[in-house]
Amino acid sequence: MTDVTSSKSARRPHHWRRDLVELAALFTAVAVADAVANMVAHGPDGPFLLVASAIALIITAGFHTWWSRHHGHAPPVEATRADAPSDDSRDVPAPSPVDADADSATALWRMRATVRDAPGSLAALCTVLAGRRVDILTLQTHPLATGTVDEFLLRAPASLPARQLTREISLAGGSDIWIERADTHDLVDAPTRILGLATRTALDAAELPLALRQLLGRCTIHSLPAVSPTGGPTGANAPVEGILEGTTMRMRDPNGGVISVERHYLPFTPTEFARARALVELDARLGPRVPRSRDVLTLPEGKITVRRADQSDVDAASAMHERCSEHTLGLRYHGPVGDADRYLDHLLSPRHGRTLKVQTASGRLVALGHLLWDGDETEVALIVEDTWQRRGIGAELLGRLVALAVEAGCTSVYAVTQASNTGMVAAMRGLGLPLDYQIEGGTLVVTARLKGTEQLTDEQRTEDRRTDEQRTMYGSPEIALRDQAGR
């Protein structure tokens, strides 16, 4: 039993003097009542005494009411002392009602700060946040060898700038402070969010890179294969337990090679590394898996089926390449058409993205649409067999790929093609989304913004412009793979 419970249940000490006073008051009241009754019954001034008694009772009742309002609800001395603010919190300014109304608008922030592993370190940060009327919605701790990284989800007054909040946290003992805007999706508690990511990964192997990105925040994820498209070893390897080096973690890919995760703005903690490794181990235990759902569409030439593709479709895709003209292959792969088959195993791997295939009623593959994870960005690419072009198949595939990108939480998709590829440009324009065009040396990059463009920070916009320039200079990830294979 705690001290608080025992103090509440303990009886107050018994005082005999108070009992004597109560008995004396009782006897006095009886004597006075008997005297008044005799005077009223036998004296000539009986009615006058009754009226005077009524007036006295009214005055007494009024006095008692006034006294109760001014003194009846005052807290006892012991409670006042117990609730008195401590020395650490007396300097915290109390918000006035006027200020509370002015700061009714709030904003969500995600903040990390490293504190000393000592009693009271976290309390000092919480005191500063309370002084600025900042509500702590969630708190996660990441233990380190020399301290603790505390991760907060905060609801703060909209008028409170992030720079001022960071400065006060620093004065309270926090270091390595990082803060960014959050949204309502961050209100989900960490165990629920991690279980949801594990479920998505269990249903679809292509979800692993997306699950890692949502688990770790804004980061760049690369899947480096152990064998290059030309068949030679790439040297990409990692130990079974993985490697954690500051802002980079490397884990062994269940399909061979390495999964590399980079986050330059914030070092990874051992807790985050353990969570990421658990997702990769789950993917390895479940093995290859692709959802088998399909959609049947009716065209004037007959019915076609749209479904997910994987590496088991390499032979069918290679046969489609043989039926395609050199012009079609050149528009799709931006290089020598003889090398097109080399990239199919990479493009159809669920580790690098999602692929949709179109089959005729006889089972012949006539079109492919790729949604490729390119670090922080997402690329879309299409190829339709010559005899099946201009029938809406490309636009249908592109719309479904964009829907998959939205479902995956992507903010934009881009297509790298040639300026003369009017079919791809028309398909992108048919999405009805804001488009950005960049062209250099005959290479056209069309970027479709899916969501969140109005909330991009200046740093993100600069990074997007830098990425667009790199795409224009070096092309898509497939071109980079081809260049590495040539070297």
Describe the 3D structure.
The protein is an alpha+beta fold and 487 residues long. The strands form 4 sheets. A 5-stranded antiparallel β-sheet has the order 9-10-11-12-13, with helices on both faces. A 4-stranded antiparallel β-sheet has the order 2-3-1-4, sandwiched between helices. It has a 4-stranded antiparallel β-sheet with strand order 5-8-7-6, with helices on one face. 43% of the residues lie in helices and 23% in strands. It has 3 domains: 105-186, 2-Layer Sandwich (Alpha-Beta Plaits); 190-286, no CATH class; 310-358 and 366-486, 3-Layer(aba) Sandwich (Aminopeptidase).
Brief summary of the model shown:
With 487 residues, the protein is an alpha+beta fold. Helices cover 43% and strands 23% of the residues.
List the helices and strands and how they pair.
Elements: H1 3-9, H2 16-42, H3 46-71, H4 77-83, H5 97-102, E1 106-115, H6 121-131, E2 135-143, E3 148-157, H7 162-171, E4 175-181, H8 190-203, H9 207-216, E5 220-224, E6 243-245, E7 248-252, E8 258-262, H10 270-286, E9 294-299, E10 302-309, H11 314-323, H12 326-333, H13 344-347, E11 353-360, E12 365-374, E13 377-384, H14 393-407, E14 412-418, H15 422-429, E15 435-440, E16 443-449, H16 458-474, H17 477-486
Helix pairs in contact: 2-3, 8-9, 8-10, 9-10
Strand order of the largest sheet: 9-10-11-12-13
Specify the structural class: alpha+beta
Helix fraction? Answer: 40-55%
Instruction: Specify the biggest β-sheet.
Output: 5 strands, antiparallel
CATH class of the largest domain: Alpha Beta
Mean pLDDT level: 76
Any idea what the radius of gyration is? 37 Å
CATH topology of the largest domain, by name, is Aminopeptidase
Number of domains: 3
CATH architecture title of the largest domain: 3-Layer(aba) Sandwich
Q: What is the overall number of helices? A: 17
| Terminal-residue CA separation | 75 Å
